[in-house]
Design goal:
345 residues; single chain; 32% helix; alpha+beta; four-stranded mixed sheet
Length: 345
């Protein structure tokens, strides 16, 4: 039903509702949760195709956690059972030895019957999943993993801004991140019409908010920007057509399009985006929406690298910090999968 096997469904009137019951365990600095932060102990399992998992890839890069938290990547498609490690040699994650992410969930609970979702963090010694609570996961990267941040890492969840940030992020989540899904998976015309109106009301609000400030919370990047970015990066390639979010394209919002390009061209953002994997995921997995499973050739993504002019608003993208270095060779998105690239996997 959904992109992450979450078991989401419908409520009254055909309105789409995401199943948000995740494994709530947290990995904490003091270990009081039962899961202490330990370099090398855990593996982040993500998928470049998934917007929720894409957040963790971005934040891990921005904070420089690559050396202490390894990452396994699932391929862009999955069946009703689970995401799979079909990108790896032999179709197995080289650290966990698994073919399916489902195996990590069953190692935690042999009777686990909920959605097998990315992102997930797996305890390498036991090969059991610790958590798949994507919203808390990235906040903990910023707060609980602080001792292992790279020099110059930005503060993505600054304490003075948290109250307002939490409100902004909640609205972005309900109205935009999940709003596109409410449009795409609406089970009735009325549900779709309502979802469509809510989505574009929120996008208009964001267009106005970002007119006078470079980023959602002011002059520097925060977690709020990461959360909005992964939806915007997929908007024209997928949500506009596939999910019927077609009042206008992202490229037709002057401010939002410039803001999205500004982030895309910032190290840690655009270098995590794999357009062919994104399109293959949605257009192949959602066979109920796209029965032919034909993957569209467009849109032209070369515009992501055009000048955005947002530097005129001032600000410092990384605050008092600095940008991350380039990704390691084994974590680079192939050049042909980035802006202007062509072809499917």
């Amino acid at each position: 039903m959904s992109e992450d096997n979450s078991g989401s469904g419908y409520v009254g009137g055909g309105e789409y509702e995401r199943d948000s019951k995740y494994i709530p365990d947290r990995i904490t600095a003091d270990g009081s949760s039962g899961w202490p932060v330990e370099p090398g102990r855990y593996r982040l399992v993500a998928a470049r195709a998934c917007p929720w998992a894409n957040r963790t890839i971005v934040v891990r890069r921005l904070l420089g956690l690559e050396k202490v938290l390894s990452m396994g990547l699932c391929g862009p498609t999955h069946d009703e059972r689970s995401w799979t490690f079909d990108l790896d040699p032999g179709g197995r994650d080289p650290v966990l030895g698994y073919e399916r992410l489902q195996e990590a969930f069953l190692a935690r609970d042999p009777h686990y019957d909920r959605g097998i979702t990315v992102p997930a963090i797996v305890d390498i010694p036991t090969k059991a999943v610790v958590t798949n609570d994507f919203a808390q996961m990235t906040l903990d990267f910023s707060t609980e993993w602080r001792a292992h941040h790279r020099e110059g890492a930005p503060d993505l969840y600054p304490e003075p801004l948290r109250e307002e940030m939490d409100e902004v992020m909640q609205r972005v989540y309900t109205e935009v991140n999940n709003g596109v899904y409410r449009c795409g998976f609406a089970g009735s015309q009325d549900a779709y019409d309502t979802a469509y109106a809510r989505l574009f009301t929120a996008l208009d609000w964001l267009e106005e908010r970002l007119t006078s400030r470079r980023y959602l919370m002011g002059g520097s990047i925060t977690e709020a920007d990461v959360r909005l970015f992964t939806t915007l990066a997929r908007f024209d390639a997928v949500y506009h057509g596939h999910f019927k979010c077609n009042r206008q394209k992202l490229t037709e919002f002057p401010v939002l399009w410039a803001y999205a390009r500004d982030l895309f061209q910032t190290p840690g953002f655009g270098d995590t985006i794999d357009f062919p994997q994104i399109k293959e995921h949605y257009y192949v997995v959602h066979a109920d929406i796209n029965p032919t499973q034909i993957i569209p050739q467009g849109p032209d993504t070369s515009g992501w690298l055009t000048p955005h002019g947002r530097e005129d608003l001032g600000g410092r993208p990384f605050g008092d910090g600095s940008p991350p270095g380039p990704p390691s060779v084994d974590e680079m998105v192939p050049a042909e999968h980035g802006p202007g690239g062509i072809g499917h996997r």
